[in-house]
Amino acid sequence: MLPQEIIRHKRDGQQLSGEEISFFIEGMTHGRIADAQASALAMAIFFRGLDIGECALLTRAMMKSGKVLDWSKADLRGPVLDKHSTGGVGDNVSLMLAPAIAACGAHVPMISGRGLGHTGGTLDKLDSIPGYQAQPDEALFMRVVREVGCAIIGQTAELAPADKKLYAIRDVTATVESIPLITASILSKKLAAGLQGLVMDVKTGAGAFMPTLERSRDLARSIVEVARRAGLPASALITDMDQPLASAAGNAVEVVNALDYLTGVARDARLHRVVVALGAQMLRLGKLAASDEEAVAKIEQAISSGMAAEIFERMSCALGGPADLLKNYRKHLGVAPIVRPVFALRSGYVEAIRTMDVGLAVVSLGGGRTRPDDNVDPAVGFTALAQIGDEISSGRPIGIVHARNEAQVEVAALALRKAYRIGDTRPKDMPVVVEYLGEDR
Fold first, then answer.
1. Is residue 84 among the annotated active site residues?
2. 83 among known catalytic residues
3. What is the pLDDT of residues 74-93, one digit of tens each?
């Protein structure tokens, strides 16, 4: 079997067999297939696509390229569940959701990623916590999941190494947006984590990789169907990313926002609706609630009681973070030397936000990467971001910029003003949870 013939088959629109897919993924993983050939196949898939059967075969081959975690002997008290987001701006849901689900009796081995393009990464946020080990060894990872209930870490070298290699190739070959490749990338890692249930948060709108609802639906359907073919119960929510989800965008500022949420200091309303909606679906998949109403009540109780906050602190401490994080998180998390409000050039109502531009402004401050080896500044970003429908006046900023120097402040403030459209009429409220895709109940 020759790699170039497999590439030719897909280039010409033919269906790939399981043997061809397994041969290619195994060869790519072990260096027998060149990066140029992997790039060519990725581009052929980008243009020709994969049907659901091919995508399921690719997902399984990538999952089998490394170790698959087995929780059967871990003496867990509940189901192994997870959630995954396709990424956005101000999307710190994982920081609240993982401990909340753990507080409801499940175990959450959450394998997350770093920022990509204009979107923030959960691992970059957690890196702002002093001492936090985002790449623990397998024994520590499994122990924290077993004893605490959740652990949020990065992809290890042992889990789905084919995905790690192919993802790097996609990132530099303009093939990131391929729905079959996105599906296989997400699910190969989730299946390797040994999950018993997965809920997808597929973003749609101006700040999403899938800006149209049609594309978001296509991705959600692909992930749910391929997951089920692999024996993993799954459902998906399509949620709005036409504005930042939280009122903060950055790394340390989003951790502060999450800890404010968990401790009850402040909770962004739209963010809370997404956390509860995703959490309810996870509890239903894990058979920890018999109805949506029961599931919502359990998630709300886990958050309002402070149990989720305590579990987040225990998780952070077990992975090397400070033991007093809840009491002193503002002291532990980095603070930018300049914190300054940004005012719009006119009064009125926020009519629209170019969400991607807000994310790119965070990157320009140093809160994201323009190259894979760039260092990320944990302290920079935005807080107090106004939402669509908010009234803006001379005393109400559209956001507060956190920056290292005056030059950064000027650039970020200009970008934020350009990203916000202020008008004379308050727009109608739009739902943050747009659609649900899952099993009929």
1. yes
2. yes
3. 889 999 999 999 888 999 99
